[in-house]
Design a protein that fits this description.
heterodimer; A: mainly beta; four-stranded antiparallel β-sheet; B: mainly beta; five-stranded antiparallel β-sheet
């Protein structure tokens, strides 16, 4: 079956630094990838939609300069949290839509802790 | 490996009751969540079972049996707006969220 892999699973970074999270579709091409963040027992909050070869579409209230998204290939999208602050600590998860399909596959998620 | 299995598609009639099952295989387990996702939208949280038993929230209920590695989502008094995909997701011992592939619920008038 289709697999979406995220890396790293866990990351701790110092306040003010930047951290990059990768989202890879391992056995299919994904023209569209989605980035979410989630707080415990809450819904996933869609942050942005990442389209291969074009600029990401950010949801209202999400700072595009803070959460940089790059979808450079059909199998890789990256989320970079720039100048991270403790309030950015959260669970970030990506999902990928299979090219030509109607199913979305989720990554395992990445825990970010900013200290 | 770790996995959650759920049916790919379920069909039901408006006004009826439907149950969506989810079985899992994970090494260590910290609860089962259910999400609803309409086409083109982000998944929204429905329920969370950290302990065995039934959790009821309006027309939706969710059940977990950790000894059977099994849970289900029960939707009552189905409405056309309930047509969506439903995902079960489990938190494993590494605090990673393992997702099922989703069940597409088709509701007929």
């Amino acid at each position: 079956g289709a697999v979406v892999s995220q890396h790293p699973s866990w990351v701790i970074c110092k306040s003010g630094t930047s951290v990059k999270i990768e989202c890879r579709s391992l056995d299919f091409q994904a023209t569209t990838m989605f980035w979410y963040r989630q707080f415990p027992k809450q819904s996933l909050m869609l942050m942005a939609t990442s389209n291969e070869g074009s600029k990401a579409t950010y949801e209202q209230g999400v700072e595009k300069d803070k959460f940089l998204i790059n979808h450079a290939s059909l199998t890789l999208s990256t989320l970079t949290v720039t100048s991270a602050h403790p309030e950015d600590s959260s669970f970030y998860i990506c999902s990928a839509a299979k090219q030509g399909g109607d199913t979305i596959y989720f990554g395992e998620g990445s825990w970010l802790t900013v200290v | 490996g770790q996995s959650l299995e759920q049916p790919s598609e379920v069909t039901a009639v408006e006004g009826a009751i439907v149950q969506i099952n989810c079985t899992y295989q994970t090494s260590g387990f910290y609860g089962l969540s259910w999400y609803q996702q309409h086409d083109g939208g982000a998944p929204t949280f429905l329920s969370y079972n950290g302990l065995d038993g039934l959790e009821e929230t309006g027309r939706f209920s969710s059940f977990l049996s950790r000894s059977d590695s099994y849970g289900y989502l029960l939707l009552q008094e189905l409405q056309m707006k309930d047509s969506a995909s439903y995902f079960c997701a489990g938190w494993d011992s590494n605090y990673q969220l393992i997702w099922g592939a989703g069940t597409k619920l088709i509701i007929k008038p």
